[in-house]
């Protein structure tokens, strides 16, 4: 971020402290190719004029405003950059450059915001913590709503194509009842029968007047058992017919059978058939009675008729995790309190808390604030109580030729791709940083390598390779061990972000020199960069050169993320040389 | 009961920053420092007005409160050396920058040190470096201080180096340094010995010129 770029001169100046310790000559610093005069840029967004330093925009070279892409919008007559976009949104974009944090304005539409970000080449993942959650929630909400809308749209589609089979027409009739009169009639008939069935279930338990000649009151179900049986049979027949028709018409039978509505249908009619099949003996009649309870699920069949019920279902589904957690914590509390009650009441004689599961009931009832009274020995009012007893190394050759080839190469690269300015923006920072690291190497007389090579070297030390040193790319995660784990994910995303930007102009990033063999880039980013990068000169020369390309560190100001997150991301190219006479290329990984 | 459970349920969603960090940030924002005037700084250092402006803008952007404390300093410096541990060296650097020894670097300290390092004469640079090495500020560099410094520098290299770091690398380096610098072999290096020895070494003299055009 800007922070790192600002402090680099200071870090380089502090390198003076190493000089008396160094035994070798320090490498030459990179040549400043352009003057660093800062200028104020004018940006006109639909009439609203913004002004900012050029350096501010240069902080993020992988965005539209930071790269040479903005030149396309330069208006010669007025000497300003003109964008025909929303000026209110632009304020937030520009603030991102200034402060390094991207904020999401709550009053804006999330899609409009996303579009602006896409236009200016900013990845939404760098939204600051303060606004990230809001952004995510709004985005999710929006997506769900859109999904629903498209679903609804698809459901109420245009008229059928003319040459559809009977099956398709039947399915359509079932799904959209208002398309044809027959379907509508059928829709209302089933609705009526569902209502009738539910009411019958309820009414048959009401006590009716006793039959003549007996005193006992019977529930209506037993008094008019034949009538109720006939009604039940009729309903079940209708439901069975409907289910079979739907099954026949469904485009994908397996999918239909697994859907919620079909399960409800099956559950609604099964008890009847099971009841028919089962013999009339006392043992299983208890189970049979329980089965009849399932008849009440017929009421859920109404959800085909009611949009609201379906929405309720979706709501429950979408906050399933929160509800699950609620249940889990409730269970935890129940277990804790039940245990406590059990052990507290253990000594008492005639207690209700005979075991921990028995205490569960008391605990549940108390926690849900229902309250039950327990009978005490000797009290006159005793109630019946129930028992139910979850970056890097720059190794440049010391000779002048290398520097020259470097500049030539960078020119050719610049000529190749788009954005010669791009090259300069990126590489000057890299140059200087690598120079700094190179000075450190010279001071200590040791070179940077990475884990893999280090272990290799330890193994092969005895064999005595003279020059074969190869580095492989060390994982980015391995570097930044001291960072917060929370940031690790962000970094990975930023990695992807800078990868994208890298591949945009990675050709220009090569301030490189030589390479022996085709690279075998191993890091994720370098895989992306690979396609553009391999235009390097292969030469049979016997020295090392280093290739560095470090995209500008992504948005991360030090005072916000003071966790030492190396915001760099470099591409390591690995060139393994088979023979021992070549030297291979090393890259520093940061 | 419902409230308790509700709170438990909501806990999963909130992410609160640690209390310490919050307090820290509050404290830092209260302490605000403004540097002396531009003309004064221009007179005291060898930077031009424009350069000071650029420097200050960058400094202020990173540290809005106007001061850098040691933690921040270490973190910033460590970003440049991700492979190793730069905190020890950053600590010594911090002490060298913090001329008033009050635990924070103000913009004036920052700019003064930069002025010496980038635009000062070789003697001034060497003096600054001597100051850096002399950890206890007693005017002498003894072997122990030098060992600390060299170890701190080697720490920045990290574990994976070529050739691999051996246990006596530091000691050898320190011995070599004393061999060169300690003229009268009394076990300590004084400022004069240091400056003299450095001036004799061509490599060092040449390298000192390298960082002129950093800004």
TrEMBL record, chain A:
Major place of residence: membrane
Keyword field: Ion channel, Ion transport, Membrane, Potassium, Potassium channel, Potassium transport, Transmembrane, Transmembrane helix, Transport, Voltage-gated channel
InterPro entries: BTB/POZ_dom, Ion_trans_dom, K_chnl_volt-dep_Kv, K_chnl_volt-dep_Kv4, K_chnl_volt-dep_Kv4_C, Shal-type_N, SKP1/BTB/POZ_sf, T1-type_BTB
Key word Nuclease present: no
Region (Disordered): 142-164
Superkingdom, taxonomy of origin: Eukaryota
Xref: SMART domains: BTB
Membrane association type: Multi-pass membrane protein
Pfam families the record matches: BTB_2, DUF3399, Ion_trans, Shal-type
Entry annotated with the keyword Transport: yes
Subcellular location: Membrane
Alphabetical GO biological process terms: action potential; protein homooligomerization
Residue ranges of domain BTB in the record: 39-138
Membrane-spanning segments: 182-203, 223-244, 256-278, 323-344, 356-374
Single Gene Ontology MF annotation: A-type (transient outward) potassium channel activity
One GO term describing the cellular component: neuronal cell body
Record-given protein name: Potassium voltage-gated channel subfamily D member 1
Organism expressing this protein natively: Triplophysa rosa
Upper lineage: Eukaryota, Metazoa, Chordata, Craniata, Vertebrata
From TrEMBL, chain B:
GO CC terms in record: voltage-gated potassium channel complex
Domain of life: Eukaryota
Intracellular or extracellular location(s): Cell membrane
Principal subcellular localisation of the protein: membrane
Pfam families per UniProt: EF-hand_7 (PF13499), EF-hand_8 (PF13833)
Domain EF-hand: 85-120, 121-156, 169-204
GO biological process, one term: regulation of potassium ion transmembrane transport
PROSITE patterns given in the database record: EF_HAND_1 (PS00018), EF_HAND_2 (PS50222)
TM spans (from-to): none
GO function terms (MF aspect): calcium ion binding; potassium channel activity; potassium channel regulator activity; transmembrane transporter binding
Keywords, alphabetical: Calcium, Cell membrane, Ion channel, Ion transport, Membrane, Metal-binding, Potassium, Potassium channel, Potassium transport, Repeat, Transport, Voltage-gated channel
Family affiliation: Belongs to the recoverin family.
Protein name in UniProt: Kv channel-interacting protein 1
Species annotation: Triplophysa rosa
């Amino acid at each position: 971020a800007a922070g790192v770029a600002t402090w680099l001169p200071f870090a380089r100046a502090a390198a003076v402290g190493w000089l008396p310790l160094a035994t070798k000559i320090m490498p030459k610093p990179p040549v400043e190719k352009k003057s660093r005069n800062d200028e104020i840029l004018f940006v006109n967004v639909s009439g609203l004029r913004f002004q900012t330093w050029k350096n501010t925009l240069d902080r993020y070279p992988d965005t539209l405003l930071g790269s040479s892409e903005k030149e396309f919008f330069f208006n010669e007559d007025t000497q300003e950059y003109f964008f025909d976009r929303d000026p209110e949104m632009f304020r937030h974009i520009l603030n991102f450059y200034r402060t390094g944090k991207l904020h999401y304005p709550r009053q804006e539409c999330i899609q409009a915001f996303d579009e602006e970000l896409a236009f200016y080449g900013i990845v939404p993942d760098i939204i600051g913590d303060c606004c990230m959650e809001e952004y995510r929630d709004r985005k999710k909400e929006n997506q769900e709503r859109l999904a629903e809308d498209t679903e609804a749209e698809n459901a109420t589609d245009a008229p059928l194509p003319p040459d559809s089979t009977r099956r398709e027409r039947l399915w359509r009739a079932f799904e959209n009842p208002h398309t044809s009169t027959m379907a509508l009639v059928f829709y209302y008939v089933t609705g009526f029968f569902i209502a009738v069935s539910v009411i019958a279930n309820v009414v048959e338990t009401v006590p009716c007047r006793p039959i003549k000649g007996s005193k006992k009151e019977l529930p209506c179900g037993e008094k008019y058992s034949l009538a109720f049986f006939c009604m039940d049979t009729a309903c079940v027949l209708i439901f069975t017919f409907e289910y079979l028709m739907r099954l026949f018409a469904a485009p994908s039978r397996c999918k239909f059978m697994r859907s919620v509505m079909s399960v409800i249908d099956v559950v609604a009619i099964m008890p009847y058939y099971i009841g028919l099949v089962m013999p009339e003996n006392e043992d299983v009649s208890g189970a049979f009675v329980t089965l009849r309870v399932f008849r009440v699920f017929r009421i859920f069949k109404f959800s085909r008729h009611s949009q609201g019920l379906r929405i309720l279902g979706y709501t429950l589904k979408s906050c399933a995790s929160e509800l699950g957690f609620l249940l889990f914590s409730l269970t935890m509390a129940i277990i804790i309190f039940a245990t406590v009650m059990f052990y507290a009441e253990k000594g008492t004689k005639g207690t209700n808390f005979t075991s921990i599961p028995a205490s569960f009931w008391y605990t549940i009832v108390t926690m849900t604030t229902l309250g039950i009274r327990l009978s005490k020995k000797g009290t006159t009012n005793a109630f019946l109580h129930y028992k139910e007893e979850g970056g890097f190394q720059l190794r440049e050759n010391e000779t002048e030729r290398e520097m020259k080839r470097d500049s030539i190469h960078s020119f050719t690269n610049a000529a190749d791709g788009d954005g010669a300015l791009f090259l300069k923006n990126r590489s000057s920072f890299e140059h200087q940083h690598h120079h700094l690291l190179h000075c450190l190497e010279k001071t200590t007389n040791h070179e940077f390598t990475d884990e893999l090579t280090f272990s290799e070297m330890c193994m092969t030390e005895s064999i005595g390779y003279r020059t074969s040193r190869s580095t492989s790319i060390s994982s980015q995660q391995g570097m930044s061990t001291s960072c917060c784990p929370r940031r690790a994910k962000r970094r990975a995303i930023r990695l992807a972000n800078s990868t994208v930007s890298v591949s945009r102009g990675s050709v220009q990033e090569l301030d490189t020199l030589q390479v022996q063999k085709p690279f075998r880039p191993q890091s994720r980013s370098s895989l992306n960069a690979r396609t553009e990068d391999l235009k390097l000169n292969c030469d049979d020369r016997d020295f090392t050169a280093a290739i560095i390309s470090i995209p500008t560190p992504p948005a991360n100001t030090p005072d916000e993320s003071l966790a030492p997150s190396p915001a760099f991301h470099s591409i390591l190219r690995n060139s393994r040389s088979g023979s021992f006479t070549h030297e291979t290329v090393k890259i520093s990984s940061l | 009961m419902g409230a308790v459970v509700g709170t438990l349920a909501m806990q999963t969603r909130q992410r609160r920053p640690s209390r310490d960090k919050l307090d820290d940030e509050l404290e830092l924002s209260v302490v605000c420092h403004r540097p002396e005037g531009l003309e004064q700084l221009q007179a005291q250092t060898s930077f031009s007005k424009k350069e000071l402006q650029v420097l200050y803008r960058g400094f202020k952007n990173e540290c809005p409160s106007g001061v850098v404390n040691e933690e921040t300093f270490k973190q910033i410096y460590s970003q440049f050396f991700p492979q190793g541990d730069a905190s020890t060296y950053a600590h010594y650097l911090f002490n060298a920058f913090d001329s008033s020894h009050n635990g924070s670097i103000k913009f004036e300290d920052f700019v003064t040190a930069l002025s010496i390092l980038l635009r000062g004469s070789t003697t001034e640079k060497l003096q600054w470096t001597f100051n850096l090495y002399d950890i206890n500020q007693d005017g002498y560099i003894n072997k122990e201080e030098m060992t600390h410094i060299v170890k701190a520098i080697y720490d920045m290299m990290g574990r994976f180096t070529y050739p691999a770091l051996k246990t006596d690398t530091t000691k050898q380096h320190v011995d070599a340094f004393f061999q060169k610098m300690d003229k009268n072999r009394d076990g300590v290096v004084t400022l004069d010995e240091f400056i003299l020895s450095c001036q004799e070494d061509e490599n060092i003299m040449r390298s000192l010129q390298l960082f002129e055009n950093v800004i």
